[in-house]
Design brief:
3-stranded antiparallel β-sheet, 3 strands
Amino acid sequence: GALSVPARSQCVLQTGLSGVDQSVLRACCILHPESGLVCLGGTGGGAAAGAAPHVHVRAPDVRAAAHRPNAYQTMLAIARTEGIPALWRGTGSNVVTSIPSVGIYLTIYEQLKVGMVQSGLSPHITPLFAGALARGVSVIGTGPLELMRTRVMAQTGTSNQLGGAGVLMRAVTQHGWRSLWRGTAPTLYRDVPFSALYWMVAEEVRGRLASRWGAPRDALSINLSAGFIAGASAAVITHPFDIIKTRAQVQEAPVSVIKGQRSESTLAALRSLVAREGFAGLYDGIGPRVLKIGPSCA
């Protein structure tokens, strides 16, 4: 899996070690504590500036997982070590990714929904199939942009940071064109069920609220409420795959940091996560994701 380290082991990764990108380790320690890597020293802006010669990383056992920083503590750590603007890192890449992704997704969804209804499929089931198919096409079509967005956001420090184009060119130079779709499998595991559940729940809740409140289905209050409920529900169900997807895309090397250990499949990565951190590890960071997804889907 991404940046996996055997349980109860500890390694010191020297800066410049072949095949290991130190910025990735700092990103997992500071920006992604849910990755299971605990930083023992040499992270943050100081490490990026060259103040620390190496980064100590270890993988905690299940008991240590309870002591990892929560979302609020992580946000404070980023602000203190890299400044408040770092909290908005990757906003430009996020916009560049969202425009084609949403455009492809919604266009295909509406076309499929109309076609399925006209073919006689139940309007209660149509959103599920149309949403799943539309999201699958969108994920595959915008895979490189999603990789770019994730890696730009995972960069730490204030110097030597790559822009979106630089991130993509480095990936191609180091690992070939196929590496631009790294993390696509767990993204499909996350986004296809998310979209299927979202549209099915949203359409159903929209109809029920309209009947109960005596308001039209397209009323603002109806759409906001139905979108929030559907988005939050789908985010909770698919969150474990979001963790695996983020780790896979943050990782620079095609294999794990332990020499000779191959990258895991999505389901194997989930099993390893449960073995290391327990079932609670599947929902690390669920609060911030629900707070982000719920309003954005409303």
